[in-house]
Amino acid sequence: ISHVVMSIAKRCYNPGLITAVFLFIPLSIWSLIVVSKASHATAFDQWLGIGIGIFVHACIMAYMLMRRNKLRLEKTA
């Protein structure tokens, strides 16, 4: 979804957009349906999983941004 959102926000193509639209988003929806039916997962379970996934990705992005800023400071020093 992030590739689609970034493409819309920046109004340009980005690497991963085509695979996101035609492969990963449909596959994710299909997987959610199949796993939900097989495990009897509730809507709460689904939203909890999505929330954890978003949190983990946000932590990764925060780490990468801090690391980039640290490397920039070391480069200018």
Features:
single chain; 77 residues; mainly alpha; 3 helices; flat
Profile the largest sheet.
Answer: none
Separation of the first and last Cα atoms? 38 Å
Given helix and strand content, the structural type is mainly alpha
Quick one: overall form?
flat
Radius of gyration: 17 Å
The ordered string of helix (H) and strand (E) elements is: HHH
Low-confidence stretches: none
Q: Name the quaternary structure.
A: single chain
Detailed description of the structure:
The chain is flat, with a radius of gyration of 17 Å. It has three helices and no strands. By secondary structure, it is mainly α. The mean pLDDT is 90. The longest helix has 34 residues, at 43-76.
Produce a short descriptive summary.
The chain has about 80 residues and is mostly helical.
